[in-house]
Amino acid sequence: xxxxxxxxxxxxxxxxxxxxxxxxxxxxxxxxxxxxxxxxxxxxxxxxxxxxxxxxxxxxxxxxxxxxxxxxxxxxxxxxxxxxxxxxxxxxxxxxxxxxxxxxxxxxxxxxxxxxxxxxxxxxxxxxxxxxxxxxxxxxxxxxxxxxxxxxxxxxxxxxxxxxxxxxxxxxxxxxxxxxxxxxxxxxxxxxxxxxxxxxxxxxxxxxxxxxxxxxxxxx
Length: 220
Ligand SMILES: C[S@@+](CC[C@H](N)C(=O)[O-])C[C@H]1O[C@@H](n2cnc3c(N)ncnc32)[C@H](O)[C@@H]1O
Description:
This protein has helices at 26-39, 41-51, 68-77, 90-99, 101-105, 141-151, 173-192; strands at residues 58-62, 82-87, 109-113, 126-132, 152-163, 196-205, 208-217. By secondary structure, it is of the alpha/beta class. Strand 6 and strand 7 (208-217) form a beta hairpin. The radius of gyration is 16 Å and the shape is globular. The site of S-adenosylmethionine has 26 residues, from helix 3 and strand 2.
């Protein structure tokens, strides 16, 4: 078994059809990544609005999937900035590298196949970090959060964002509850590790709840 294998919500290795979202591979994984690329824009925007990367910042996206978040972050940090995307799925890393090919060639972006709990970057390398719709798949989220703190510079910030409902169904309370439950689990772990919780936010689109996010600052 790959050490990087994604887990389902009970911490077990992903085996079901659902896990094409948590560990996309093969033909179905490619279809899931295409769907993420089409549908994930508003959650990436919600995460980046809250993260507020500055021009010239170094940013890392954990669980970057098809790379749309990396692409959006590149626009925010400008030509002097740098954005890394990591994903434990080789298929996702391949899609993401394709999505930001030009920026990779310019040295403004890097895509790597890696596990959130074992990042191939030096200490304090990033100003900002974000993770969209991926936290629920991390097999050891506490270890991943410690690893993210390691690669963030002092004062560095992390946003974790989760989809909060089915966009076509504003009264999908179960979907909203799932997103909120995941963010409250993330918030509890962050607090236990000494992260400072800066903001917790729901993003809406008219009557629709789009996303739930937590913004936290690295432990001192
Ligand atoms: C539902 S997709 C979300 C992708 C992207 N963030 C988006 O919103 O479109 C979840 C992604 O997280 C990745 N992932 C799951 N567990 C991971 C882990 N422990 N470390 C790194 N990536 C992980 C999966 O491979 C998958 O590409």
